[in-house]
TrEMBL record:
SUPFAM superfamilies membership: FAD/NAD(P)-binding domain
Residue ranges occupied by any 4Fe-4S ferredoxin-type domain in the UniProt entry: 204-233
Official protein name in the record: 4Fe-4S ferredoxin
Domain of life per record: Bacteria
Keywords carried by this UniProt record: FAD, Flavoprotein, Iron, Iron-sulfur, Metal-binding, Oxidoreductase
InterPro entries hit by this protein: 4Fe4S_Fe-S-bd, 4Fe4S_Fe_S_CS, FAD/NAD-bd_sf, P2Ox-like
Co-factor(s): FAD
A GO MF label: oxidoreductase activity
Organism for this UniProt entry: Mycobacterium yunnanensis
Chain segments annotated as transmembrane: none
Family as reported in the entry's similarity comment: Belongs to the GMC oxidoreductase family.
Length: 518
């Protein structure tokens, strides 16, 4: 059977894994195909063959470029190995209008999608989430485990496991920063009182091959040893083995399937600008939450005028500690998220807010006023913790995607709008509870400096064609019986905890189950 996959992000990688185990399945992947520049790739290759002490200064400077400030954004735009190729527009953004302060780079053209630049946090959704979905925990747990055979998980057993099982941890995180160690020790001593208030703290769970970490301090800007997982790793490995055919520089615009016939994918070949078509027995669309939504709206015979869009809203909250851990500059600590805080609003961890807390990295120092004396900067950094928090989609601003115009040979014009709850009440409750817990953990939120990220900036969004109400359990919409949407666009909701692992597990579930449907 010939399977065609649209995209190379995490959902696509999971689809490839589900198909590759069956020799009868032929796999073709089409995407836009953006990659690192030759200079950055060469620098990576040189660095990965050496110990950090042997690196050339020019190579290190190239791959460790810090995030770049962009207009209308709460946070600067990250770089990976000095590159912004994952944000480059190759036509996938044309005709997509976002709200004020919205994410103007919400669909990626990169091989690997946004997993080329993500924070690498992975954990399952809670069992309570699936109690409200049209399929339960037992249906998806085997697919979580299957994905984690490919994706490395650095994690440890702690209070988080009560609601979010570890499933398949391979190694603990490497040595934590002094602030992380201090917070975890304070939590241990005050655990019962904090748990009684609905707050738990635990180490981060990261898609990192932690056992091979050299502690070079470049994980946030791009690990030269490729120890931070990207779906690009899976795609490239299986393409190199000959198991997968990869056709790049294709902008997919629609899918179609005549009654009683086989599906096909239409798009534009960006090499020559001509229309192109790919035929298959089955198609799996994994172009990202908004990318797949536009393809769907362009493909349905009678598309809706608009669909809902759910996002787990992101907010920035800096914390200040009374006790310093010393100037962190010059330490080569892990610069990814090191510990999390979870605020629960019920007894089953359904409605929660998750806070990802980061140690020092140069981007934090860059955010401080440049006129501060060096000694004062070091003193501040020894007390400062940057954190990104998230609300569940059902407590976040409500959005819609309106179809404004369809095109035969290009993606449709759509407009994303915020339609309600622009300033969620839950955020105020979260901040009050964080402030109350501050003395116990020596983490005091700087409330005047809290910032709500713009629409789409969390990258945790989708649910435009949710299972059970927009698509069936196999991600099929309308009359497209052999076309399956498998990414965030079909999730029934988006909890506050990280969603990439669930996107991958659900894609693996859909593809696995579809193989048994005639």
């Amino acid at each position: 059977m010939h399977n065609l996959i649209v995209g190379t992000g995490p959902a696509a990688a999971a689809a490839i894994l589900a198909l590759a185990e069956d020799p009868a399945q032929h796999i073709t992947v089409v995407d836009l195909g953006e990659r690192l520049s030759a200079d950055a790739t060469a620098a990576m290759d040189r660095m990965s063959a050496m110990e950090p002490a042997q690196w050339h200064a020019a190579d290190r400077e190239l791959v460790s470029a810090q995030p770049s400030r962009i207009a209308r954004s709460t946070l600067p735009e990250k770089r990976a190995y000095g590159s912004n190729h994952m944000f480059v527009d190759r036509g996938q953004q044309l005709g997509l209008t976002m709200p004020e302060r919205g994410n103007d780079a919400s669909v990626s053209a990169a091989v690997g999608g946004f997993s080329t630049v993500w924070g690498a946090q992975i954990m399952p959704f809670s069992r309570a989430t699936f109690d409200r979905w049209p399929f339960g925990w037992d249906a998806i747990e085997p697919h979580y485990r299957a994905v984690l055979k490919e994706v490395p998980l650095a994690a440890e057993e702690d209070d988080y496991a009560e609601y979010f099982p570890l499933l398949h941890a391979r190694a603990p995180l490497r040595t934590a920063s002094r602030r992380t160690t201090d917070v975890l020790e304070r939590y241990r001593r005050r655990r019962d009182a904090l748990r009684a208030k609905g707050l738990l703290v635990g180490k981060a769970r990261l898609a990192v091959a932690a056992g091979s970490c050299r502690q070079c301090g470049l994980c946030m800007t791009g690990c030269p040893y490729s120890l931070v997982y990207s779906s690009r790793h899976t795609v490239d490995r299986l393409v190199a083995s000959g198991r997968v055919r990869h056709v790049s520089r294709i902008l997919v615009t629609e899918v179609e399937q005549p009654l009683g016939g086989a599906p096909s994918v239409r798009g534009i070949d960006l090499v020559d600008g001509r229309s192109t078509r790919f035929d298959a027995d089955r198609v799996f669309v994994a172009a990202g939450g908004l990318g797949s939504t536009r393809i769907a709206l362009n493909s349905l015979t009678s598309p809706p005028d608009q669909v809902g869009l759910q996002e787990s809203m992101q907010f920035l909250v800096p914390f200040l500690s009374r006790h310093t851990t010393g100037d962190p500059r010059g330490r080569d600590d892990l610069t990814l998220n090191q510990f999390n805080m979870l605020l629960t609003f019920d007894d089953e961890a359904y409605t929660t807010s998750q806070i990802h807390c980061y140690p020092y990295n140069p981007a934090v120092a860059a955010a401080l006023p440049g006129w501060l004396p060096d000694g004062v900067t070091g003193a501040v950094l020894g007390r400062l913790t940057a954190a990104l928090g998230y609300l569940p989609s059902w407590e976040s601003p409500k959005m819609s995607v309106a179809l404004t115009r369809r095109h035969r040979d290009s993606l449709p014009d759509v407009r994303v709008r915020v339609v309600a709850d622009r300033h969620p009440a839950m955020l105020r409750s979260v901040l009050r509870r964080l402030a109350a817990a501050g003395p116990s953990l020596d983490l005091h939120p700087l409330l005047p400096m809290v910032r709500q990220s713009g629409p789409g900036k969390s990258y945790h969004f989708g649910s435009t064609f949710p299972h059970g109400n927009g698509s069936d359990l196999l991600g099929r919409i309308g009359d497209l019986r052999d076309v399956h949407f498998i990414d965030g666009s079909v999730l029934p909701s988006v909890p506050a905890t990280t969603f990439t692992l669930t996107v991958m597990a659900n894609a693996h579930r859909i593809v696995t189950e579809s193989r048994h449907v005639l």
